[in-house]
């Protein structure tokens, strides 16, 4: 039989563009396949690097997995270029700062959002966030803080976070010293500096600096967590007991602070307490933290559930190559 004439049929090649990649990213996000979603959004941005919607959506995925610094870097870029065309960025940035425990910055951006969009899509959420933060009205705010300068802080934070998670103390110390000089009002850098100093061997100096800070700022939770760890490792039982009593009665609202408190209880050997705190965390928001898997698995091991400890550790190794290169934390001479 004669074959049908196909001379008039043409193949139309399909060439994916940014919109195609973006759509695939949204689909993956809706299915909670966050890592896949990020890959699609990265492809979309490779086609259109400055597309504000692509950057905003990618930032939302970063928020979901707990990479709040990366999320804010993208949102800050959008605000720098497009300004008030994307007002929702102010609320999203505020929400990320709240998760990081940077309350002053969270309040600032929530108020900016309400000022610019009092009837906006996130107005109710912004009011609720401000209510929860309950920030002191007389707290001074630096209204001249430039977006470009905030971007620099975020870059420093992300790099410091990288070294701290890998226990690269000297590298972290060098960067934190720069941060303290360049951004003296950024208090979190001081706490991370004291922590890195302690585990780099400068224990006396670290304790003295943190004790001085907490005398001047008695409301700072990070100071109490640091000091509990410092006193535990230096066998200062009286001061340790005092810090422990305080911490056991604190239940932070922000995921970042919840994680830090859970890891603190693990580091000081309160594994049952730590395990209970870990179970309250939202894993989807903390997958970007190797410490989540390191300390959570440790809790399971020392509370007698070795099978679960191995499971959590294996999952962490798949998420973070740095863990795969390390021995299991409960097999180390020192947990730190």
UniProtKB/TrEMBL annotation:
Record InterPro entries: CellSynth/LPSAsmb/PSIAsmb, TPR-like_helical_dom_sf, TPR_rpt
TPR repeats: 18-51
Annotated keywords: Repeat, TPR repeat
Domain of life: Bacteria
PANTHER family (alphabetical): LIPOPOLYSACCHARIDE ASSEMBLY PROTEIN B, TPR REPEAT-CONTAINING PROTEIN PA4667
Stated name of the protein: Uncharacterized protein
Species this chain originates from: Gracilibacillus ureilyticus
Lineage: Bacteria, Bacillati, Bacillota, Bacilli, Bacillales
